[in-house]
Structure formats: C-alpha cells, structure tokens
Amino acid sequence: MSSAPRGTVPIQADSHQADSHAGPDGPPDVDADMPAGRPAGCAPRHPGNPARPPNAITGQTAGEAGADDAGLRRLKQRRDFLRVAAKGRKAARDGLVLQGAPTPAAEAGSARIGFTASRKVGNAVARNRAKRRLRAVADLVLRGQAQTGHDYVLIGRKATLERDFAALCSDCRQALRRLKLARDGGR
Questions:
Q1: 126 touches 118 (CB < 8 A)
Q2: Which of 17, 36, 37, 111 would you label with 6, given CA atoms 20 to 30 Å apart?
Q3: How does pLDDT run across 41-60, given as a tens digit for each residue?
C-alpha cells in the first residue's frame, strides 16, 4: 500500500522530470511550450495606450480626449464619499443617482469622481457590473462636462444593470444639468 492519501498521486522525486522545463538559471520556464506572439484570434492592443482599448463610441482612449479631461481623478476614501453625501446636492434619475459637492480647498484644482453601488443592486457581480457601466458613462459624459473644483459620486441602481446605455448617458447629463454643475452652466 502507498502512504499517499486516497485520491492523490504521490510526488516522484526524479530530478529529470522536475527540471524538464528548467531555464538556463534553474527555475522552470513557464512559457517554454507557448508559441511567441499573441494567440490566434486575439486582437492587438491599441497602439496609443497598450493597457486600455479605445472607447467604442469616440474611438479615443481616456488620455487622448484632450487637456480638459486630464483633471478628472478618482475619489477612493470613504470620508470623501460621506462629505459629498452630507454637504452636496443630489439628483436621482431612473438609471443612476448623481451627487455633487465643491472640492475642499486642500484638494482643489481638478474634478474628482467616485462610483458606488449598494447591496440593493444585487450581489458582488451585479454591483461591479453596475460600477463598470457608470465608469463608462463618466468617461463619455463627465470628462467633458465636469466642473473643476467639484467632487461627483455616481450611485448605481437596479436599473443601471438593464437600462440602455444611451439612456444611462442621458440620465447622467440630465442629473448634471439639474445640479447646475455642468461646464455649460446647466443649460
């Protein structure tokens, strides 16, 4: 009988098997059997920004849209979200809720944006999908319309998941105009 637990295969101590893919320095070469280049069917990444593909509607990556969008940064700390909720204004639409508040003097100089979705939206997968959709909306709408010196929070709703993307963008534009925080003065 073998001393290995039931249902497992004992490890063999043959040195030639363990080092069959070893590189010149000794550690195994993980990609030794993989062909060079990209796998068949994988499109090359966008040449302007290898980490991020271009926007499907505008054809631009986030950094290409111009100098106006360079100042849009992310809100990441809980205290910033709480400050915007307590001191700011909000506008609710079918697909999202937009909150806006002036940026504190110490952080002034650019617009900042945060995304959130509560457990009412669904499980973690649904919440993350809602936040991805909100980020896409912010890329198209807020990058061109957000006023510098203001913080924005986009809150996902259940309808964020199924709502048509064009309608979601329209919801964001309407909410921005209602808060009078659009660059065009809320017209």
A1: no
A2: 17
A3: 545 554 555 555 555 555 55
